[in-house]
Design a protein that fits this description.
Elements: E1 13-29, E2 32-46, E3 49-55, H1 65-73, H2 85-89, H3 97-115, H4 119-122, E4 135-137, H5 142-151, E5 157-161, H6 167-177, E6 181-185, H7 192-202, E7 207-211, H8 219-228, E8 233-235, E9 254-258, H9 259-262, H10 265-277, E10 281-285, H11 291-299, E11 306-307, H12 311-314, E12 320-321, E13 324-326, E14 329-331, E15 341-342
C-alpha cells in the first residue's frame, strides 16, 4: 500500500477461525440457555500487518459462527483499498451483519496499527470518558442468582435477566443483598399488559430501566408500555440497524447497540448520533464474546450514556487481553489499533 496515493495492496488477505468460549455459569435469558458460546475470529492482513476482528453471531437472527465464516469466504477483496472502510464493507451483503461486524472491526484495528494510534484516537474520543459497565446476572433459581450477586457485590451496576416469572421475589431477594444500580432485561418475554403490570410492581425496588419488555416489531405497543411505565424503556431486539431508530421515536427512552447486530463500529457511530438527535439515550452492549469484540465496543463508550460490555467477565477462557476492568470502569488500551493481544503473550 502506498500511504500517499492510497493504492490498494496486492496482499489483502482474510483468515478466520472459530473460538469456543466457556461461561462461568450457565447463562439463561427468557428464551434460551447456554454454557458455551461460539464466535468467529477474523484476521485481515495487508503488507505484513494484521488487524483482528470478531463476530459473536446472534441466533435470534439465524446466524452462527459457521455461517459467518461461509459468508466471509465469499467476500472478494482482491482489489480492495483497506483505507476505504465503507467501500470494503459494501462487499458484504447488507443482511450479513455478523460478517460485516468482523470485517469492520478488523479494518479499524488494522488502520490504527498502520497509523500507530489507538482506535479511540482515530475517532477523536477521550478514553477518560469510557463508561462503567453493568454486570449481567442470568435467570436461575433465587439462591443461584443470589450466589452470583454475592460474587459481584463490588460491582456498582447489575443487569438482571427476567421474564420467566418470579420477577418480584427475585428482585426483592437481590435488593436485600445489593444496594447498587439495577437494570432489568426481559428479552421480549411479556405482553404489553404484563409489562406494565410488572414494571409498576418493581418500581419500588429502584430499577434504572427495563430493556426490551415486549416482542420486537411493535413500536406502538412500546409506546403503550412507555406511557404507563414508571421505569424508562430501552430496546435491544427492536433496534438492530440505523433504519430501526426513527420508528422508535417517542416510543422508548433509549436503545441498546451491539456491534454484531448492526455490522460494526461505523454503523454503531451513525446509530449513536441518530438516536441522540431524536432525544434517545444509548447503551453499548455485547453478546458472550472475547476481548476483541468487547474492546471494540468499549472504544465507543465515551459517546454514550450506558455500557453493558461484560463479555470477558462472564467467560473462563478469553484467549485475548484488551479492555481492562477497574471494578466496573472500562479502561481502554493505549496500544495502536484496538490494543488487543493474545493472553499468552500478555
Amino acid at each position: 500500500m502506498d500511504a500517499m496515493t492510497g493504492a490498494p495492496s496486492e496482499t489483502f488477505g482474510l483468515h478466520h477461525e472459530l473460538l469456543t468460549l466457556h461461561l462461568r455459569h450457565t447463562f439463561t435469558i427468557a428464551r434460551s440457555s447456554e454454557d458455551i458460546a461460539r464466535t468467529l475470529l477474523l484476521r485481515v492482513s495487508v503488507d505484513g500487518l494484521e488487524g483482528l476482528g470478531e463476530s459473536s453471531p446472534v441466533g435470534r437472527y439465524s446466524e452462527s459462527a459457521e455461517l459467518v465464516a461461509q459468508q466471509l469466504d465469499r467476500v472478494n477483496l482482491a482489489d480492495a483499498n483497506p483505507w476505504h472502510f465503507d467501500t470494503v464493507l459494501d462487499r458484504v451483503a447488507r443482511d450479513q451483519r455478523g460478517a460485516m461486524c468482523a470485517l469492520d472491526i478488523a479494518l479499524h484495528d488494522l488502520a490504527g496499527k498502520r497509523l500507530g494510534v489507538p482506535v479511540y484516537q482515530m475517532l477523536g474520543l477521550d478514553p477518560a470518558l469510557a463508561r462503567q459497565t453493568s454486570f449481567t446476572i442470568g435467570i436461575a433459581d433465587i439462591e443461584t442468582m443470589l450466589t452470583k450477586a454475592r460474587e459481584a457485590l463490588h460491582l456498582p451496576i447489575f443487569k438482571v435477566k427476567i421474564g420467566k416469572g418470579n420477577e418480584i421475589e427475585t428482585l426483592e431477594a437481590l435488593r436485600s443483598v445489593y444496594s447498587g444500580t439495577i437494570r432489568v432485561d426481559a428479552n421480549e418475554a411479556w405482553t404489553p399488559e404484563q409489562a406494565v403490570k410488572a414494571l409498576r410492581e418493581i418500581d419500588r425496588l429502584d430499577i434504572e430501566f427495563c430493556e426490551q419488555p415486549i416482542k420486537a416489531g411493535h413500536p406502538e405497543q412500546l409506546r403503550f408500555v412507555r406511557e404507563r411505565s414508571p421505569i424508562p424503556i430501552v430496546v435491544d431486539e427492536d433496534c438492530r440497524t440505523l433504519e430501526d431508530i426513527a420508528p422508535l421515536h417517542g416510543c422508548v427512552d433509549g436503545i441498546n447497540i451491539k456491534l454484531v447486530k448492526c455490522g460494526g463500529m461505523r454503523e454503531a457511530v451513525r446509530m449513536i448520533h441518530a438516536a441522540h438527535a431524536l432525544g434517545m439515550k444509548v447503551m453499548i452492549g455485547c453478546m458472550i464474546e472475547s476481548s476483541i469484540l468487547c474492546t471494540a465496543a468499549a472504544q465507543l463508550t465515551p459517546l454514550v450514556e450506558y455500557a453493558d460490555v461484560d463479555g470477558p467477565l462472564l467467560i473462563t477462557d478469553d484467549p485475548y487481553q484488551g479492555v481492562a476492568y477497574d471494578g466496573a470502569q472500562l479502561r481502554l488500551p493505549d496500544a495502536p489499533g484496538l490494543g488487543v493481544r493474545p493472553r499468552s503473550a500478555a
